[in-house]
């Protein structure tokens, strides 16, 4: 009887203090950096959400955010449990949280990622130095492939966007970046190579009018991250589910293709050290 009363007292105390008795999370809250429109994000994540629910035995809720900083803040403030970050947004989140963000999975493609610079075919732009005096767009200011690394390679080529370009624009997302070049609002732009290839493969851009004139060297990029406060067993369960996705199964092929992946592999914080160095060198991390 005394034991029953003790248990009841502990339950009441836990409720009052909002402290769970053990880790019994019922909902996995997920978001991603908004590389594309919210409707496209939802379409891409739908099958993966269903797959994770089935494999984790819990409800998965996906909530799109308006911009890259919002994804960072959502993780730092533990408003979400799992985030698809670009390499640079992971770095920003990890700094903001005091080293409390843990990257654990990435696509195989993210170990050798690249950005592309595009322009209209009749622009006369064929190399990076031709961008001097032009209007150039990046994606989000927090984007790895749409800003940090393109800026880094421009600086290495002796080109300072703030002093050498006629105007610097930020589109906010890769699809908007492409649209800005197609419409002629800017002379050239930099973006994620996988988004560019997707648009080309789906016939959403006419490469006889707009095409790539420069492709960057490779670098580490995207990852799935969780907060360090998530129990290791839960993180490992999510990782196991992601690593089990296989292009040879119908479900796996659909999910991986939607997410522009061939498979997911383990990753670690050290893989993004060079991005932090690049961010500091470019003045994007103070």
UniProtKB/TrEMBL annotation:
- NCBIfam families given in the database record: 3A0109s03R, ABC_peri_selen
Q: GO biological process: what's one of them?
A: transmembrane transport
**Pfam annotation, one family:** Phosphonate-bd
Source organism superkingdom: Bacteria
State the UniProt keywords alphabetically: Signal
This protein's GO CC annotations: ATP-binding cassette (ABC) transporter complex
The record, for InterPro entries, names: ABC_peri_PhnD-like (IPR030836), PhnD (IPR005770)
Family to which this protein belongs: Belongs to the phosphate/phosphite/phosphonate binding protein family.
Record protein name field: Phosphate/phosphite/phosphonate ABC transporter, periplasmic binding protein
């Amino acid at each position: 009887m005394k034991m029953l009363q003790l248990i009841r007292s502990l339950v009441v105390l836990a409720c009052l203090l909002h402290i769970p008795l053990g880790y019994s999370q019922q909902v996995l809250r997920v978001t991603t950096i908004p590389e594309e429109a919210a409707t496209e994000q939802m379409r891409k994540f739908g099958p993966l959400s269903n797959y994770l629910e089935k494999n984790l035995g819990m409800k998965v809720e996906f909530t799109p955010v308006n911009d890259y900083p919002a994804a960072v803040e959502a993780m730092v403030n533990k408003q979400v449990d799992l985030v698809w970050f670009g390499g640079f947004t992971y770095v920003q989140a990890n700094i903001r949280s005091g080293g409390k963000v843990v990257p654990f999975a990435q696509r195989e493609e993210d170990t050798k990622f690249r950005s592309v610079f595009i322009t209209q075919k009749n622009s006369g732009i064929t190399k990076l130095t031709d961008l001097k005096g032009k209007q150039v767009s990046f994606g989000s200011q927090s984007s790895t492939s749409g800003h940090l690394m393109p800026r880094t390679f421009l600086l290495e080529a002796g080109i300072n966007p703030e002093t050498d370009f006629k105007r610097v624009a930020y589109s906010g997302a890769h699809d908007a970046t492409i649209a800005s070049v197609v419409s002629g609002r800017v002379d050239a732009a930099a973006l994620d190579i996988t988004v560019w290839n997707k648009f080309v493969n789906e016939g959403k851009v006419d490469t006889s009018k707009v095409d790539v004139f420069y492709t960057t060297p490779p670098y580490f990029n995207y990852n799935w991250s969780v907060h360090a406060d998530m129990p290791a067993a839960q993180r490992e369960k999510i990782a196991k589910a992601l690593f089990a996705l296989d292009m040879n199964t119908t479900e796996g092929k659909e999910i991986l293709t939607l997410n522009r992946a061939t498979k997911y592999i383990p990753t670690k914080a050290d893989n993004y050290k060079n991005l932090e160095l690049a961010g500091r060198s470019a003045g994007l991390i103070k």
